[in-house]
# Entry
Amino acid sequence: MKDKWLGSTIYQIYPRSYQDSDGDGIGDLRGIINRLDHVEELGAEMIWLCPVYTSPNHDNGYDISDYYSIQPEFGDMETMRLLIKEAHRRGIGIMMDIVANHTSDEHYWFESSRNRDVFYGDFYIWRDQPNDTTSFFGGPAWTFDERRKQYYFHSFSKHQPDLNWENPYVREEMANVLKFWTGEGVAGFRFDVIDLIAKDVDRKIWLQFELFEERLRALLHEGIGEQHIVTVGEAGGLDLEQVKRVTGDGMLSMVFNFETCAIDEVAGKTKWHLAPFRPTELKRIIRKWQEGLEDEGWNSLFWNNHDQPRALSRWLDSVYLYEGATMLAMLQFGLKGTTYVYQGEEFGMTNGTFEDRSHLRDIESLRFLDAASEMGFSEEEAWKAIQSKGRDNARIPMRWQAGEYAGFSDTEPWIPMSGQVPYLELDQEQERSVFRFYQNLIALRKSEAVFRRGDFTLFDTEERICAYERTSGNETMTVICNLSNDTIPFSFEWETIWVTNYARPSHGKMDKLAPYEALICYNSGRRK
Ligand code: TEU
# Structure
């Protein structure tokens, strides 16, 4: 991890839902350019841009048909270059989302492969006989192609055929994609499901780790070389030891793992099998990754993204929107790693509301609805699951201000506006502003070394409280969070308060924590 990035925050934008500039109800690149001041004001130093390449859009851009051009709904290459330039001018890098595991079925590589073209014939995974592997979106992972008269493999939808990473030309093509975008001046890459590039579909093995390391190393070496590019691998399939290995020298800056995202799921079942939020489980996972990557590797810290419904709605009581949103921010920002903010988090945005099929856009949710009764869900249970875990939750349009389309667009958006109106965003000058909270935390991480380097120690507290200390040299910072809507007895004394969501005095003590109360304190000298 390059030092420059130790204290920075990466802001994730889902372009479709960020800002519409041309009145078609779909967010676009020009809209993002118009909002760069917002990102700068927040203090983020990089924008992770979900895919903006040409795509038939079955999976909202994660089905790419041309890695070298821009989705016309979003703009064109010239606007993309302007975005990179304008962001750069504000000290903000652009991180591109690279989908290397699969393409769209409308990519010309796939078209050519279906026709058994001499060169592209072997670019995808073709077999005469499928096995019983199921795709991540449900249903078989193999689809018969009438033209080629063979089955092709797809980890996701049938419109997203997996590339054949055994083929050296596939590997070369992907390195070329990286070279092209670094040439355009981007500062980072997020690699979509990168841990799937070393699977053995015949033996049903999703990850052959050594082969994965080898392929990843080669991709980064060929595509990026010595350039200073921040890289994050979406790699939910890696365990702690494997993460350490792939975040070492010459490898990734960090990876995303999704353990915290599963704490409200029944273990061993699907994401649709809901379980109550378990604070102890959250604390166990935080501790595991903080201690595990203490000396080696680097954490990426996030609660939400475009696939994950908002933790604020999933885990907390919506009566306490402000307290909940700010507590989650403090819990995350106190930890060691690179912090991510998913668009709207800085306004305390909540999940959407979905009452019938016509409200949904996500391919995964629609598939689940079709299969739900076969999977044993009643209609009511299925809707409850969609409401809680459906990916559309985080994809509803950004709410910038009051009004029908909330400043996102001046026309009906591609996905209905919904969710709780976050009263907090309406007046950023008001005392209780989630935005200013994030701003402060982002600034503190840059200025205070203890955030970046301090060692982590979790306090032994009752289960609804998560409290930890970060120490570096003779500096100590303490983070205390009430994860519940209960008032809980807790004695603590502080010298200097850095951040609080209950207006505690700068120097003082407490004997109880209010609902979702959280504070970050600073004491020079170690606690006895
Ligand atoms: O997600 C990978 C992934 O594992 C998710 O699809 C996950 O299984 C699902 O969201 C759980 O609900 C990445 C992208 O982030 C996602 O948007 C894409 O759909 C997917 O890859 C395919 O490219």
